[in-house]
Amino acid sequence: MTTVTHTPDLLRYTDVPNLSHGDVLTLHEEHLNSGLIALMRLGGYHSIRAVRASGPWIETADGTRLLDLISSYGALNHGHNHPRVVAAARWFDERGDPDLLKEFASPWPAALASNLARLAPEGLGSVFLCNSGTEAVEGALKLAVRSFRGERDRFVYAENSLHGKTFGTLQITGRDKYRGFVPRLPGWPMVPFGDVAAIEAALTDPGSERIAGVVLEPIQGEGGVVVPPAGYLRAVERLCRQHGVLLILDEIQTGIGRAGALFRCQAEGVTPDVLCIAKSLGGGVATIGATITRPELHAAAYGKIEDCLVHTSTFGGRGRACAVAMEALQVAVDEDFAGRSRRTGAWLREQLEGVRARHPNAVRSIRGEGLMIGVELETPDVRVPPLLPRERIRSIATKYLPGVVGAELLHEHGILSSFVLNNPRVLRIYPSLLATREDLAGVPAALDAVLSKGLGRLTGRLLERAVRRDGVRAVLSMVSRW
Ligand SMILES: Cc1ncc(COP(=O)(O)O)c(C=O)c1O
């Protein structure tokens, strides 16, 4: 029997910059996520090719500068390609140290873990390193169950929460659209965010003897930048101590200075039992997350030699990512991310309050802490141009309203912002924490100009733009894919 070997013609990475943008879109549609490209087409995002980025600014192939107010959902607190963070990555690469070698005690994760222990609330000195936010939360859930020797294996979590999209974290995700893959487990209480009494009830109801912990974001990001009432986290901390369950705080979005403190729990005077971080821990250059806890909890969960490999991650704690994260943390300290975020955030929110005052029928609230800002929009009467399916478009536009506002900000003002995942009314404003007032000066006027066009008319403008570009049939076909 003869074996026919076929050598496929592979693209070289060096050819990638020379791919035409049409080819890039085709490859996305064929091999990645065609629905996402359809969504981009509708908003007119598909034609933009970003070629360079620095700080809060992105440069496109046609030389346009865009102001990034998404910062990869909080993963770019340092901005794009921060020179010190990039230099740390290059420095590591040039040394030739082993990046991925777990069989010996590597100095890189050891040094990073020690720095994290110094920066985290007191007592949190044991670190598990991983690669993403969801993995950091998975680590927290497993650690909690294990530290109770499996006798407690349920969690209290909040409505509208988002802690990741893997199977375990979906169990504590507060929105059905994302958690639909897993059945709602009985005895895992989902409580309204900000409601202390609901948590107290969850910790005293029959079945609560199986509760291992309460998992919360200090400020809900994807839930719509929801700041809980003052004192909420402290009260929850007290309840957790009183009932002998763990407080697990997900600071994947609020952390590394985003919400006006290095970790938001520090501003609240709260010490969780487990702290989860990721996103900006990598300074926008490395892919890294961490689950930080008390050493005695780690010992209870995995302290025996037999258990030391029960929870692991192949890529977690690799040398390069740790070196980069060390520099990302150093930059956050040297540049006073916490103070900057508080000061620039207070100034920007004040400016945005001015916009709200001029558009009381379009903006319900400006909310957030530091530079974690949400603009809560009113639900308008959406006007739909003729020839397009009115009710369907109205329903889509209502679900994606901040996306419609974002498209107008992008095309007319060069500002990149977006919706949040679990709240169809909130426009996200998360600039780099190093963005200056000068960088951000145009944002309030741009939002003002967009809202002056009438919130209800923006969907029509977006669709008319798409029809002019792609024709009615193409737009109808995109809408029909919803
Ligand atoms: C609060 C929070 N937790 C967890 C995650 C999941 O992080 P990742 O996408 O890195 O898995 C996110 C992602 O947006 C988040 O906002």
How would you describe this structure in keywords?
482 residues; alpha/beta; Aspartate Aminotransferase, domain 1; Aspartate Aminotransferase, domain 2; 2 domains; 7-stranded mixed sheet; 4-stranded mixed sheet; binds pyridoxal-5'-phosphate
Describe this entry's structure for a reader:
With 482 residues, the chain is an alpha/beta fold. The strands form three sheets. The chain has a seven-stranded mixed sheet, sandwiched between helices. Strands 1-2-3-13 form a four-stranded mixed sheet. The longest helix is centred in the C-terminal third of the chain and has 22 residues, at 337-358. The protein contains 20 helices and 15 strands. The chain has helices spanning 21-31, 34-43, 71-74, 83-95, 107-119, 133-147, 167-170, 176-179, 196-204, 232-243, 264-267, 295-302, 319-334, 337-358, 390-399, 401-413, 437-440, 443-452, 455-470, 472-480, and strands at 50-54, 57-60, 65-68, 126-130, 154-158, 190-191, 211-216, 246-250, 274-277, 289-293, 363-369, 372-377, 415-416, 418-420, 423-429. The protein folds into two domains: 52-68 and 337-480, Aspartate Aminotransferase, domain 1; 83-334, Aspartate Aminotransferase, domain 2 (3-Layer(aba) Sandwich), CATH 3.40.640. The structure holds pyridoxal-5'-phosphate (PLP). Pyridoxal-5'-phosphate is lined by residues 73, 132-134, 137, 162-164, 217, 221-222, 250, 252-253, 278.
